Amino acid sequence: MKELVFLLLVVTEVSSRFRSSWCELGCDCRGDLKFTICSRALFTQLPSRVAPSTELLDLSDNHISVIPERSFSKNRKLRVLLLQNNNISVVEDGGFSQLEFLQKLDLSWNQISTLTEGFSVGLALLRELQLAHNRLTSLDSLSFPHLDGLQRLNLTSNAIHTIQTRSFSSMSALRQLHLEDNQLTSLRSGIFSMLRSLEVLNLAGNRISEMDTSVFKPLVSMTLLNLADNQLSKIYFKTFLSIHTYSTHILLEGNPWNCDCDLQRLFRKLRSIQRLFLDDYYNLTCKTPPVLQDYRLMDVDTELCIAETVTVLIITVTVVITVLAAMLMGERKRKKKKKGKHWTQQGELSDESDY
Fold first, then answer.
1. Cα dist. 270→59, 107, 201 in Å?
2. Topology (CATH level 3) of domain 171-321
3. Do 16 and 27 form a contact (C-beta atoms < 8 A)?
4. Domain spans, the chain
5. Contact assessment for residue 280 and residue 252, using Cβ atoms and an 8 Å cutoff
6. pLDDT tens per residue, the chain (355 residues)?
7. Which positions ≥6 away from 311 have C-beta within 8 Å?
8. The pTM is what?
C-alpha cells in the first residue's frame, strides 16, 4: 500500500513538473494545459513556452508590440487567441499563418494602422476578428483576402475614412460588420457587393452625408442597418427601396435632418413599405430650417407640406382666373365684332333701299 501511494506521488510530481515546464512564469495553465492565461503578466514580447496542446491563449493587457512571422508555429491547436489591450503596431506577414484551427482572434485596443495581405494568411477557419480601437485609416482588396469563413468583423473606433471596392470580397459568410465610430463620409456602390450573408451592418457615429442609391442592394440578408449619428440631412427613397430583405430594421436617429415637404413625403412612403421598419422614427429631430430646430419630425410632419400646398393652390387659382379672364375678354371681343358686323350690314341694306 505504501508503495502504491509513493508511486502515485511520484507520478503526480512528474506530471506537475511537466506542466510547469510548459507554463511560462507569470501565466496560469489550466485544464491539462488547454487553457493558458497570461493576462497582465507585463510581457513585452510573446512568451516562448506555451504548451502545444493549448486551445485558448490569453495574452491581453500586456505590453507586446510586435507579432513576428510564424509566431505560433508550435501552437497549431489554438482556437482562441486574445491579444487585446497591448501595444501591437506591427503584425509581420504570416504572423498567424500556422493557426489553421483558430476561430477567434482579438486584436482590439492596439496600435495597428495597416493590414497587409499576409496578415490573414492561414486564417481560413477564423469566425470572429476583433480590430476595434486601432488606427486603421483605409481598407482595400488586400486587407482581408483569406478570411473565407469569417462571420463577425469588428472595426469600431478606428479612423477609417476610405473603403475601396472589394475590400470585403472574400467574406461571403460574414454575418456582422461593425464600422461604427469611424470617419466615413460617403457610401459608394460596390463596397458591400459580396456580403450576401450579412445580417447586421452598423455604421453609426460616422460622418456619412451621402449614399449611392444602390449601395445596399447586394445585402439580401440584412436585418439591421444602423445609420444613427451621421451627417444625413436628406435621403433618397430608392436607396432603401433597393433593400429586398424579408424584414430590415433601420436606425436613423441623431442626423441633422432638413425638415421639408420632400422629407415628409419620403418618410411617409418608407413607412408604408411593410418589409422596412424605422424603429426610431419617433425620435428623429429637425436641424433645419432654424424655425424647426430640435422639433421632432413626427410633431411637424403634417405641416411641412402646407406652405407648398397653399402655394400650389394660389398658383392654380391664379392660372384659372387668368384663363377665365382671357376667355371672357375673348368672348366680349367676339360679341363686339359680331355686333359691329351686324350694324355694318344694316347700314348697307339701308343704303340699298334709298335707291
1. 48, 39, 19
2. 3.80.10
3. no
4. 26-135, 171-321
5. yes
6. 444 333 333 333 333 433 467 799 999 998 888 999 999 999 999 998 999 999 999 999 999 999 999 999 999 999 999 999 999 999 999 999 999 999 999 999 999 999 999 999 999 999 999 999 999 999 999 999 999 999 999 999 999 999 999 999 999 999 999 999 999 999 999 999 999 999 999 999 999 999 999 999 999 999 999 999 999 999 999 999 999 898 999 999 999 999 999 999 999 999 999 999 999 999 999 999 999 999 999 888 777 787 554 433 444 445 455 556 666 676 666 666 666 555 555 555 455 555 4
7. none
8. 0.81
Peptide bond into 290 cis (omega under 30): no
Strands (E), the chain: 28-30, 35-37, 56-58, 66-67, 80-82, 90-91, 104-106, 128-130, 138-139, 152-154, 162-163, 176-178, 186-187, 200-202, 210-211, 224-226, 248-251, 257-258, 276-278, 286-288
Largest CA distance in the chain: 169
23 in helix, strand or coil?
Answer: strand
The grid coordinates listed for 328 are: 371672357
Which one is the CATH code of 26-135: 3.80.10.10, 3.30.1330.60, 3.40.50.2000, 3.30.450.40? 3.80.10.10
Measured distance CA(258)–CA(29) in Å, rounded: 59
Q: How many residues are present in the chain?
A: 355
CA 125 to CA 3: how far, in whole Å?
A: 49
Q: Do domains 26-135 and 171-321 have the same CATH topology?
A: yes
